Amino acid sequence: MMNLYESGLFFDEMLDGKQPKPHYRSFYQKLNAFSKAQLDEKYQQAQSSFLRQGITFTVYGAQGGTERTMPFDFVPIIIPFKQWEMIEAGVKQRVQALNCFLQDIYDKQTIINDGLIPRQLIENNPYYYYQMLGVKVPINNHIFLAGIDLIRDEHGTYFVLEDNLRNPSGISYVFQNRYVMKEVYPEFFSKHTIQSLDKQMAFMKKALLAHRPRCLPPDAEPRALKNIQFFYCGKSLTLKKTTSCFISNKKLSFLFSINYFFLLKV
User: Fold this and answer.
1) Residues in a beta bridge with 239
2) Cis peptide before 71 (omega within 30 of 0)
3) Beta carbons within 10 angstroms of residue 207's beta carbon
4) How far apart are CA 112 and CA 156, in angstroms?
5) Using CA atoms, how far apart are residues 240 and 253, in angstroms rounded to an integer?
6) 171-184 and 36-53 are packed helices; what angle lies between their axes, rounded to 10 degrees?
7) Neighbours of 118 (CB within 10 A)
8) Cα gap 158→154, rounded to integer Å
9) For 244, phi and psi rounded to 5 degrees?
10) DSSP letters of 170-181?
């Protein structure tokens, strides 16, 4: 089914010349076994699954409606384990450095006082909140969930395109994409040992409980609400929508945002 193509100056994840790279061989063989009609059918099946579950995203400025189903690419980026170990270590180090930066600019501001970063660059940023200056956050951690966007140059070297430190930072799309991929293309999973996502939700719950009480983003957009609902579903958390609510129960801790709050069983 698959026709050869020219990648030009761009790095090709799957092919080395006309042959698949070692970690892509099994996938390449299975991909070529499908006809175009079969792939079209599977793509429509994936889109229908996203639509039924309400997995959409907002396209700002678009005509004809702003809610669309999530783009779905059935050709995955397969990362060998050794390469992933390097990426994982680098991302962890980066997030730790970003957290130290946030802790400093909202506390002692050493990086500013030492002249490493101009004060006006921080204070003139519309996302710098003076109200948080000097506030002690739980375990000195400002980053609850991070989404680090990676790209590769023409030589295959990884670079960071963007750091997303918003919560919940699109986490539901990662899980739903994997779920739909396994449902629509089970053939691709048969001969690969793929790192599971199953334990991640337990890790997230543990992190959330370690940070209570925690302010969540006052963002009621469908995209954000979908992520929030997914993130807290089945985690002993109850999602409530309210404009004003008062709770007097010592057995409950609570997290507030402007439009939503979450009850935690403790």
Assistant:
1) 262
2) no
3) 14
4) 35
5) 14
6) 140
7) 10
8) 10
9) -155, 130
10) THHHHHHHHHHH
